[in-house]
Amino acid sequence: MTGDFNIRDNNWDPNYPHHSAHTKDLLTLAESLGLDLSPPINLGLPRFADNPCDTNSVIDLVFINPNNSGFGQHSLHPELRRPLDHVPLIIEVSINETNIDNSF
């Protein structure tokens, strides 16, 4: 589960001094799916503010099963962000082959 959650919180952004009222709900949802917040391999800010009065922030998050080999392996690529205000997050996730019986 990944994306722009638009939740600023110092759980994932140490430069932000507050906790959001929405953080608990997001973390409860992730936990119910067996997912944990995955830290990137390279530190940085995934969103750059358009408005000079705003601050850059961490609102793009990756949640993944901690037993997956991709956990803690996503990377931020600020060199690919222009003209966007969000930095691409890139992750390689292993998926096991599964046979699904589709005969009904």
Your description of this structure?
The chain is mostly beta strands. It has one domain: Deoxyribonuclease I, Chain A (4-Layer Sandwich). About 10% of the residues lie in helices and about 15% in strands. The chain contains one helix and five strands; from the N terminus they run βαββββ. It has one helix at about 25-30, and strands spanning about 1-5, 35, 60-65, 75, 90. The strands form two sheets. A three-stranded antiparallel β-sheet has the order 1-3-2, covered by helices on one side. It is globular, with a radius of gyration of 16 Å. The relative contact order is 0.22. The mean pLDDT is about 80.
Write the layout of secondary structure elements.
Elements: E1 2-4, H1 23-32, E2 36-37, E3 60-64, E4 75-76, E5 89-90
Antiparallel strand pairs: 1-3, 2-3, 4-5
Order of helices and strands: EHEEEE
Q: Report the uncertain regions.
A: none
In whole angstroms, the N-to-C terminal distance is: 31 Å
Task: Name the structural class.
Answer: mainly beta
Q: Looking at this structure, what is the CATH superfamily? A: Endonuclease/exonuclease/phosphatase
The CATH first-level class comes to: Alpha Beta
Beta-strand percentage range: 5-15%
**Cα gyration radius (Å):** 16 Å
Quaternary state reads single chain
Domains counted in the coordinates: how many?
1
CATH topology tier name:
Deoxyribonuclease I, Chain A
Arrangement of strands in the largest sheet: 1-3-2
Number of helices: 1
What is the total tally of β strands? 5
User: Biggest β-sheet: count, sense, barrel?
Assistant: 3 strands, antiparallel
Question: Mean pLDDT, nearest integer?
Answer: 79
